[in-house]
Amino acid sequence: MPKMPLSHKLKLFSNFIYAGRFREIYNMIWVYPLWWNRKTAAFLLNNFFPKLGIDLFPPFLEIEPTTVCNFRCVCCEHTYWKEPSINMSFEKFKKIIDDFKRPKWLGLTGIGSSYLNKDYHKMLKYAKSKGTIIEVFDHFAHFKNDDEIKELIEIGPDFQFVSMYGSSKISFEKVCVGSDFEKIIKNLKIFVKLKKQMKKRFPILNFHYIVTSESKDEILDFLDLVHSLNTEVGEILVTPMLHGYKEAKKYEVRIDPDYVKKVEERAKKYKIAVTVNMSAKQEAEGLICKPPIRNCKEYIMPFIFVTGDVTPCCGQNEANARDWQKNTSLGNVFERPFKDIWYSQKYVNMRKIIRKNKVPKECLLCPAYDISKLHI
Predict the structure, then answer these.
(1) pLDDT tens, 150-173?
(2) Which parts of 18-176 are beta strand (E)?
């Protein structure tokens, strides 16, 4: 979970006040108690609310706008797919949002490069018009020109994560095959410059550092690079590969408490908040073992594929098991509204199984929790 000082949280929060994002502030009342602290969230979702007869409708939603990508990242399942790459149309995206009835938080990211969907900014703008808190991930590699960066700043999604695979051209491009490291850094600097010129508080810049065998030893240099940008940073999310499937097994690495300590010390020096993703390895949170699945809160953030298929969360992505995910889909939002899917017997049963500390079939590839107790 995000590990940042209270002072930093308050500083980030002040941006919403000064920008007059009061709908988003209201949404935070729902979002953060169900996300920032795993134990609290799990207690509310799996104990407190069910005892009151409440099966809470999710305030979170993740939508995959595209599976089109011209990179061939060696650690990404997309490189090994046989699935045709497609874009989601704005009309289909709008239908999901309208059927959902104004999500309080939206992650508009998937296994593809968002800017290769011509409707991407249109999607962002529509969701933002609802006062939804928006978090997006992108390579920062596919802007057509500076005006497109300026338009992104004008739309102002709340949190903009930039995915990074190293801190040098050699390591970055070895992992993210087909990319241009220098162009990405240039776009980052333009983003920082324009945001200051436009006197905008959003998007708040964040980074997602993917730890592989190629990038692991460059993370301290990466923190130096982020510091050199001289701009406000929300957080750096550090994530080892979630799944070591056979095609990418050699790029999988483990991180230990000493590694996490070194990262946190350098981040503290620069006053940058760093979160090591517990979904990848339990060592990242200093846990002796993975938490029992009854502590799961991630199912409150369903993930919708570009095809409309609904999966429990994004945690089973990047396992190169896309066909299995579709086969265990909980429904399709292009065939029936998400609310009907959420309260269907199939979805309700999945949540009941989790609350009994058993593993439903839809969660067999979960990287975050103990999945040894299968539901039969």
Answers:
(1) 999 999 999 999 999 999 999 999
(2) 60-63, 105-108, 133-138, 159-164
